[in-house]
Amino acid sequence: MFFAISATNVCSSRSRITGKERDTESGLDDFGARYYASSIGRMMTPDPHTGTLLHMLNPQRWNMYAYALNNPLLFTDPTGMDAIAVNFSGDVGGLGHMGIISVHPDGTATYSRFGPVKGGSPIDVGQVRTDRDLPKVDFGQNGLPTDASYQALTDAVGKFEGDYQGKVPMAYFKTSDAETGNLDAYINAAQAASDARRLTYLGFPAGNCATYCAIGLHRAGANRGAVGALNIFSAIPNVYYWWLQLWANQIHEEVTHRIID
Q1: Are 210 and 234 in contact (CB under 8 A)?
Q2: Which has the closest alpha carbon to 201: 87, 120, 98, 122?
Q3: What are the structural domain ranges in the chain?
Q4: pTM, whole model, 2 decimals?
């Protein structure tokens, strides 16, 4: 004997997947920049952010209609989070120094960098330093940080690096929350390994600040493969940053850190 059971949704809420509002006429979920069709598991319009470094690194991003890297059981993509590569172009005798910032939907941000315990040492115990108290980022109508936010971040990371005075360009990458979640996990793991003195700084061409940022960006691209485009030249921070800015969503170049009394 078979029993047919019917159910009626008596909930008045229009919120559906990840709390997004569902349009009652079209049946689509409103994600702000795009609408999502839960019936087919696809966004209705293509991803507006394409051709970035992360799209090059992660094949799952090539499908511009996919939701949450085609893995909605593990990931959500409610608003998106972002990553910033920071270049201290005048540091290390003109070769440069790099760090990476993880930016969250609420504007909170984390800065992380890698270097030798003894400054200037070509081979040493590696040290990760992380600043989780950066100024809150304000976003413009284009979804990218405002000029004032870039300046505030520059002042903060410049002071964190020891009152660095010089040009501090930034390359900004739009990511999903899953991808920047991977970056956060990478930073946390690296900080823990550093605290346990398990890291080695090898200088050029590998095991330096540029390598640290490259791996972080690969994690942000959800790429489980090799580090990729690093070699003896692109492991030089200034050279690697030049390559990164070819794929960034936004470059903020004309920012100079200055000590504010």
Answers
A1: yes
A2: 122
A3: 10-45, 81-252
A4: 0.70
